[in-house]
Amino acid sequence: MTLQWSPSPPDHVPAELIVDFDFFQAPEGLNDPVQIWHDLVRRGVPPIFYTPRNGGHWVFLKYSDIVEGYRNHEIFSTYQTPIPPIEPFPVMQPQGVDPPEHNVFRKLLAPMFTPLAVRRMTEGLQHRAQTMISSFADKGGCDFIADYASRFPTGTFLDLFGLPEERLPEFLALSEVFFRSTDPDARAQNLNDIYAVLEELFREKDRNPGSDIASAIVTARDENGQQHPWQDILNCGFLLFVAGLDTVTNTMAYVWRYLASTPQARAEFRDRLDDPTAFQLAIEELMRINAVSNIYRRVTHDCEYKGIQFRRNDRVILSNTLANRDPSVFEDPQTINLDRQVNNHVTFGVGPHRCMGSHLAKREIMISLQEWLRQIPDFELAEDQEQGSIFGGSVMGFTSLKLRW
Predict the structure, then answer these.
(1) Burial of residue 244, with CB atoms counted within 10 A of its CB: 0-12 exposed, 13-18 middle, 19 or more buried
(2) Iron among the record's keywords (predicted)?
(3) What is the pLDDT of residue 126?
(4) Domain region containing 310
């Protein structure tokens, strides 16, 4: 099969810009996957380099270049970007479509995720958090990933899409393969499985619409009063499926991991429980320091950037954890300052494709932490952490995080 969007052989890349780097691989003994990236800076590799791993791609290390990769869609497209390359790959709506075409579905979805719309979800989110945490609060410990962090955002997704809670294991399994596997056959089958679920979901909502997001998408009409193309509807559902699950799960894992090992920070958050503004300010800092996503872009045409030759269809990775700790932008960037006032982090991206679900993600994490601290005010890392439980990739994180109290 000919790959229409495959990158060029790296004969246009000078030898001094080639670095052997695999962002999926976490070296043995590493206990924090973000160090996969920060080790590059410590090694002094070029700020823009090319790795032949995973089909070959460029890596940007500096905040300014990462922001340019987000904003300059004329060079760095969101269309057909997977690393390693996979064909065919869904055109996610609106994330996988460049401006101005992306505005069709962005305008459709944006009202569902405004700060006001998300505030209206507060009661439901609080009930979900209270119920889940109370189910293990008196047990003295839990595996935070299995018992809470993976289940809370996925359960929220099911609720927003009007799906029953008992389908949670099915969606967790689909998400696991999508974000972790590098096997081409497994990835291709996973896409088929996800789209089969979405096809069934949207057909049902088309016949029997409700008040959920899936119904709003399938019943929306274009400027001519017609239903949007069916494939675009499925692609929009696909984006919402992959965008709101794993990133929230692993951001939570990092936040709870930090608080479990930092008594002073736990105390500061407890002191802010009745001050939502101060609580949110501290959450923003933890989201800066714990950015878990590495975002893909594809070069649209042969060009020169910062004196380096890029070829059409070259892939680029924008690492948010590197941008958020760039000392040229953030004062004392490796230090967690829960009162940091200027915090221009890129955890949710910037530019035309900035994450529309950012308000929901923040609200999920804030409510979860508030309810957790009310029921479990003090907790720590368990001594028997599972070895090899960390992973790299487009979203970094942990397969297990054992806590005790």
Answers:
(1) buried
(2) yes
(3) 96
(4) 33-404
